[in-house]
Write a structure and sequence with these properties.
The protein has 405 residues and is α/β, with parallel strands linked by helices. The protein has three domains: 6-49 and 59-74 and 84-167, no CATH class; 178-241; 260-390, Rossmann fold (3-Layer(aba) Sandwich), CATH 3.40.50. Helix content is 41%, strand content 15%. Helix 4 (82-92) packs antiparallel against helix 5.
């Protein structure tokens, strides 16, 4: 019995709803996959078959020169998404590049989606939706998000992969299972005159390595190696068996957290976001860098003015309510610097009241943007402010009723 297509329907139904939380998917054997979302975009996916082995395989594939002794696996186990936490910590310590981090996350999400697609083809799955009211808690390991993926982009890639797999008649064979020789006598007869090939098969097809790991060892695609083995599966010469996960044994090394982060791009214009919420800064990073601008996020408001003086941004998004120094004070400080008097400042806040708007205008802000963050409004505000700045026009903008101070 099949529930094929339910996952796709559920994911498509989230688009445009600003859903933050996760979807848990479970099969009859207790295998559980987890999909994590922020504002209806995928942050991470995990669970499924032997996650520790998967983590080791992905590190070997995308970070071959990384010293495993620098990975804080023991600390990471305290977090629900321990492997995502590790990717963030490695990136923050400059042990991997952002490109490597994105490869790790992208492949893991696609692998989970593919596994669910295959499971749907074989049985009815159970789906549970868990909503997160505010931001992900610290113990989730998702407090700092590296990027947010569009659902439709990932679905298109995974659907293409699954359809190809299905059309080649491979639906019954799970790439997470390990091939083992079931009838060595008959199989050896198939390779008469090719003794070296048979010996290599015996060394590899020992029930220890899942198909997906064998593909990496042989530098082949998972599709190609499974198609090659398919006739032997069908003849009963080779079978697939489950393999156990093997927890990693890695020593503990500390991590360093920065107060601000710079994402380099080739665009000339720089946009700052000063907000003590890491989640807000990560959402803004995704929106702003995707649009092609340089982006700097600052979570510690005390660090704000020195960094602004150093980088001289073209536009600043400024949170209103922060500890120690609030947005009003920072905005006043910025306006006292002659070189920054024309820099557009957009206030970010959850308290969208008239008093806040008036006070923000008094201290020199150019606009107001209400939380939760809306991508279209952010981009519209950037274009409007930068266009005005580039045209050397007045920095006080004529705003709509919704955004007027």
């Amino acid at each position: 019995m099949s529930s094929s297509g339910i996952l796709k329907q559920k994911l498509q139904s989230l688009q445009g709803k600003k859903f933050t939380g996760r979807i848990d998917v479970k099969n009859a054997n207790g295998i559980k996959w987890r999909l994590y979302f922020c504002l209806s975009r995928l942050i991470w996916a995990d669970g499924g078959y032997h996650p520790y082995r998967v983590w080791e395989r992905l590190l070997t594939k995308y970070c071959p020169h990384l010293d495993n002794q620098l990975i804080d696996i023991n600390k990471a186990k305290e977090f629900e998404c321990w492997n995502y936490y590790l990717i963030v910590s490695l990136l923050q310590r400059f042990l991997i590049t952002k490109e490597q981090a994105l490869f790790l996350i992208d492949e893991r999400i696609k692998q989970i989606l593919f596994d669910i697609y295959q499971a749907e083809n074989q049985e009815i799955l159970k789906y549970d939706v868990v909503i997160v009211e505010d931001n992900f808690p610290e113990e989730s390991g998702l407090k700092v998000s590296i990027t947010l993926f569009k659902i439709e982009t990932l679905l298109a890639a995974v659907e293409y992969q699954w359809q190809h797999w299905h059309n080649m008649g491979l639906s019954l064979w799970n790439p997470n299972f390990a091939p083992i020789i079931k009838n060595p006598v008959l199989l050896q007869q198939k390779f008469k005159g090719k003794e070296s090939t048979y010996k290599k098969l015996v060394s590899l097809l020992n029930g220890k390595y899942p198909l997906i790991e064998l593909a990496d060892k042989l530098n082949l695609t998972i599709l190609k190696i499974t198609v090659w083995l398919k006739p032997y599966f069908e003849q009963g010469l080779i079978a697939l068996v489950e393999v156990k996960d093997q927890p990693l044994q890695i020593t503990l090394i500390g991590i360093t957290n920065n107060n601000y982060k710079l994402t380099k791009t080739t665009h000339q214009q720089v946009v700052f976001c000063i907000d003590d919420s890491l989640q807000v800064c990560q959402i803004m990073e995704h929106i702003i860098t995707e649009a092609g601008y340089q982006y700097v996020s600052i979570q510690n408001p005390i660090k704000a003015l020195p960094e602004i003086l150093k980088r001289k941004p073209d536009l600043i998004f400024l949170d209103l309510v922060m500890p120690i120094v609030n947005g009003y004070e920072i905005c006043s400080q910025i306006r006292r610097v002659s070189s920054l008097k024309d820099t557009p400042i957009i206030i970010l806040t959850s308290n969208d009241g008239m008093l806040d708007r008036v006070r923000s205008k008094i201290v020199g802000a150019n606009g107001f943007l209400s939380k939760p963050i809306d991508q279209e409004k952010v981009l519209a505000k950037i274009k409007s402010c930068l266009r005005s700045k580039n045209n050397n026009s007045a920095t006080t903008l004529e705003l709509t009723t919704e955004t007027k101070i």
